[in-house]
Amino acid sequence: xxxxxxxxxxxxxxxxxxxxxxxxxxxxxxxxxxxxxxxxxxxxxxxxxxxxxxxxxxxxxxxxxxxxxxxxxxxxxxxxxxxxxxxxxxxxxxxxxxxxxxxxxxxxxxxxxxxxxxxxxxxxxxxxxxxxxxxxxxxxxxxxxxxxxxxxxxxxxxxxxxxxxxxxxxxxxxxxxxxxxxxxxxxxxxxxxxxxxxxxxxxxxxxxxxxxxxxxxxxxxxxxxxxxxxxxxxxxxxxxxxxxxxxxxxxxxxxxx
Length: 257
Prior knowledge:
Blueprint: H1 2-22, E1 28-32, H2 43-57, E2 60-64, H3 72-75, E3 80-84, H4 93-104, E4 108-112, H5 123-129, E5 133-135, E6 140-146, E7 160-165, E8 169-170, E9 179-185, E10 193-194, E11 199-200, E12 208-215, E13 218-223, H6 235-250
Parallel strand pairs: 1-2, 1-3, 3-4, 4-13
Antiparallel strand pairs: 5-8, 6-7, 6-9, 9-12, 10-11, 12-13
């Protein structure tokens, strides 16, 4: 009788392991939303959206705001890190070093909106993001353009379409080799901004919004979209985010043409 019970338990365990293997998630990501400056109202909507993407596309996600997660031991379980609406200085020197080693090991980074308004004094990070935030005008509707269809997540975006968001203006490129995929037409909105200590009339004919590049052994994707909470329920935006995340986590998805 005991032998039969033991065999039954062994069979159940083997079957469970088989089922777990068959339903293994594609990859696992760290979603980080710590702020040390402006705190976006859309953070909660953004977290919900990433969680829904995880269910839809069968990957695992852990949400953290505690920077102690940035250690070699804790980061090893992830294939990509998402900085969602982060601001200011959020990691200490040891945590920054752990993130650098993470990317150098061949893994990925995704920055959404104010990830470019983060860690200005960390040169390695600003080069990974590609450009740093400078200023923005009031939220307006403007015309976006897809400039490169090789990147995943743009399949159903029109060549040109209207979008409402907070249009970030950026400083000069922090590194070479950025591949731009979305731009905004400044002739379709008023790019002028005056913050007293900062003023701008816009970036001119070329105003980038999203890009990607290989960086320091790993991969980095950034999009400036995502200020408005309602954005995180928009299908086009969610496909855009998942395309960037899928590429950052796996290195897959780029088209040859």
